[in-house]
Write the structure tokens for this entry.
Amino acid sequence: MLSINNLKKTYSTGDEALKGVSLEISGNEQVAIIGPSGAGKSTLVQCINRLTEPTEGDVYLGDRELTKLNKSELRKARRRIGMIFQEYNLIDRLTVMENTLSGRLGYVSTWDAFRRNFPEEDIKYAYETLDLVGMEEFADDRADELSGGQRQRVGIARALLQRPDILLADEPTSSLDPETSRIVMELLGDIAERENIPILINIHEVHLAEEHVDRIIGLTKGEVVFDGPVEELDEESKDVIYRGEQIPDDAADMAHSQATVGSDVTDDMTERTDA
Ligand SMILES: Nc1ncnc2c1ncn2[C@@H]1O[C@H](COP(=O)(O)OP(=O)(O)OP(=O)(O)O)[C@@H](O)[C@H]1O
Ligand SMILES: [Mg+2]
């Protein structure tokens, strides 16, 4: 189980990206974090495995407090957190199999990794996983020969090779076309069920979240303004998440953005609202 308590992040620039976020995710829940650009979605995901250091609050994975770990403990803990990225983060000149096996890097010695000496068991699991994501026949292809959707499947396979306790995905579909996005979201859902692990997905396409997850967390200006089953995400809730209704400061922001068409804020709001 992932448990986040009163998590705050203020960047050195003074940006208060998270203002006290608390949430719990367990079982094989499929959870989407939605919210306008700048809401703090990426910051939240990065604070979980401390790619970004939180300013305050704590994060537990099971009974281990991630926010208390020293560097080497953190390195070990991160093995159990599978991360999936918008831009896939594959190594172009390596093959699909090599990229997939790199999910085991936290487990093998540097020397073995350098020699690409992976245990037989890992290689077998890599083939199985590539099969699961529909990429087995591409095992020997270089990553830079793949389409975006194929690259993301490899990104997912690599995360699975870690045998993670949880999967975190930051906008896993925003570089993909709508049909491929749907396939990737479906795959993530299947995996959560099959591996019996929870999955937390940052996503700005609300309809994709609605179609594919069990639970939605709405983040606005660093605060959770909605947390509930997907069936409860009605138009009113979306207004709260995307237009900041009920948040007094925002009434002014809305009026301002309507009056200043073309500003960054307006572009972002429009883009997210229409998505
Ligand atoms: N490295 C950083 N340094 C300073 N401020 C940052 C940094 N990263 C993010 N921020 C600020 O923190 C806030 C939250 O940003 P974050 O990237 O987490 O939002 P987001 O919800 O992921 O947005 P998007 O949908 O555009 O990806 C924003 O105000 C952003 O400008
Ligand atoms: Mg983001």
In short: The CA atoms of residues 70 and 111 lie 24 Å apart. The first strand starts at residue 2 and ends at 10. Residues 178-195 form the longest helix (18 residues).
